[in-house]
Amino acid sequence: MTSDLPRAFWAALEDLPPLAVLRGVDCDRHAADATGNISQAPEAVFRPATTAELSRIMATCSAHGVPMVVQGGLTGLSNGATPRAGEVAISLERMNVLGAVDPVSATVCAGAGVTLQRVQDAAAAEGLSFGVDIGARGSATLGGLAATNAGGLNVIQSGMMRAQVVSLEVVLADGRVLGHVRPLAKDNSGFDLKQLFIGSEGVLGVITRLCLALRPAPGPQQTLFAAAPDMPAAAALLARLRRQAPGPVTAFEVLDEAIFARILEQGHRPPFAPEGIQVLAEVETADPEPLQTVLMQAMDAGEISDVTLAASGQQAAALWALREGCGEAVAAMRAPVGFDIGLPVAAMPAFLEDTRAALAEMPETHPAVFGHLGDGNLHYIVDTPDHARAAEIVLGAVARAGGAISAEHGLGREKPGYLPLVRSPGELAVMRGLKTLLDPAGLLNPGRVLPDETTLSPHPLP
Fold first, then answer.
1. Measured between alpha carbons, how far is 83 from 138 in angstroms, rounded to an integer?
2. What's the whole-number mean pLDDT along residues 94-106?
């Protein structure tokens, strides 16, 4: 690949260390994120190892009008890190220094390129834990997790990534460095600017280093798998466990009939004959007997028709393998399109009924739903040749139900055109104002998150 970047641009950066720059075919592995439906090799890949290197690279891009796309572990699912033609990639994979865990303040400081798994392991070695967990823990990086405000499996107990960040450092599009990485639990010295950048998907600045809050290590967990007749019954079970379980509910996952049937087609074996909505939940308690009593009460109330408690760690892992089989099930579909949505739990039954009825009128279209019922986050997958119509149906219904068109995966390049469904013109104006203030030339992650100002209705992926 021949770069179209000007000679003066390269001359300004010619003394960067060799590991800091990739060109030509070496850029190919940076051509797409995990979404996988589009691919575009960047003009070049910059891999700074320090904030100073990153600042200089971004200042040079700004001076020469070179657009940048920010990349972490490339595990995103909205094409936010997939380059567009003419962009250079800023990869944070070499900013991977992990500090020592401070057991007194229960914090750890780390570079944006440190993987989630490394933080989890370091915390566990000190008898602590980190509040966010996702399936891609071995490759997802902290900068990406913060930039997308990642959620995952433990939001019901620990909150989103936003709740774990004590402080951070960020580099703006023109190379200016903002913020401090320090373990201050209380700091009301003016605006809390870090909250602007958490969840902004890199359109306002590049997160480089973070100080993270850690938590006490969780106690023994009881893992249960149950069959509920429908989603309202599953929600009733969740409410019961929150009220009556002998410990906090740390996870509460649901799988509808359609996705579970596809999981079983991949060779997974259920603990009992599947029926209705499958529930996978965890409760923090050492004694299973009080939990068994609560589950029997749920069965008497008609909230579940069958249930099993894992008797060992191996059995718990086997139950979680059913939930993790969702990825295999989706990959086996002919033409899936996924919607990562947030809804008030009370609105879910009507939403599911309405969308399924509308999708049933489309030929060769089959919905399947799974997700984190405990925090109102559903992954609504539609196997259909008509992605645009499916998006109109699902996201339109989300907006009418007072929900979110993106619960944890971000908007990326996939959903900016749908943002006016759930954000008012005033809110969009403020968002654009912040973008103009911090990145007036629009060089940082262009085409992500914010819709074009002329957008009045949703449009498909560019």
1. 23
2. 97
- CA-nearest of 160, 154, 114 to 138 is 114
Taking each helix axis as running N to C, give the angle between helix 231-244 and helix 288-300, from 0 to 180 degrees, rounded to the nearest 10. 140
Which has the closest alpha carbon to 381: 324, 333, 344? 333
Strands 377-383, 336-342: pairing is antiparallel
> Exposed, middle or buried: residue 23 (CB in 10 Å: 0-12, 13-18, 19+)?
middle
Residue 275 and residue 111: Cα distance in Å, rounded? 46
B/e letters for 334-350, b = 16+ CB within 10 Å, e = fewer, are: eebbbbbbbbebebbee
pLDDT in tens, 400-436: 999 999 999 999 999 999 999 999 999 999 999 999 9
pTM of the model: 0.90
What is the per-residue pLDDT for 3? 59
Q: Which distant-in-sequence residues (6+ apart) come within 8 Å of 116 by Cβ?
A: 130, 132, 133, 134, 136, 137, 138, 140, 141, 142, 145
CA distance 330 to 338: 9
Q: Assess whether pLDDT exceeds 50 at residue 19.
A: yes
Quick one: which of 195, 180, 177, 174 has its CA closest to 438? Answer: 174
Reading the block at residue 122, the tokens are: 């370091």
DSSP SS3 for 345: helix
Q: Which residue has the higher pLDDT, 200 or 153?
A: 200
Give the dihedral sign, CA 197/200/204/205.
positive
Q: What is the residue type of 63?
A: A
Q: Is the pLDDT of residue 459 over 50?
A: no
Contacts of residue 453, defined as CB under 8 A and 6 or more positions apart, other chains included, come to: 432
The closest alpha carbon to 460, from 376, 306, 337, 292, belongs to 337
Q: What SS3 state is found at 376?
A: coil
Q: Are 337 and 386 in contact (CB under 8 A)?
A: no
For residue 360, give the nearest of 390, 387, 329, 330 by alpha carbon: 390
**Nearest in space to 221 (alpha carbons), one of 252, 247, 240:** 247
Q: Does 316 have pLDDT greater than 90?
A: yes
- Mean residue pLDDT of the chain comes to 94
Q: Are 340 and 269 in contact (CB under 8 A)?
A: no
Residue with tokens 């440190």, as numbered in its chain: 114
Q: Average of pLDDT values for 207-226?
A: 96
Give DSSP secondary structure letters for 384-420. -S-HHHHHHHHHHHHHHTT-BS-SSS--TTTSGGGGG
Token pair for 78: 């909205």
Query: Residue 105 — φ and ψ, nearest 5°?
Result: -85, -5
Burial class (CB in 10 A: 0-12, 13-18, 19+), 269: exposed
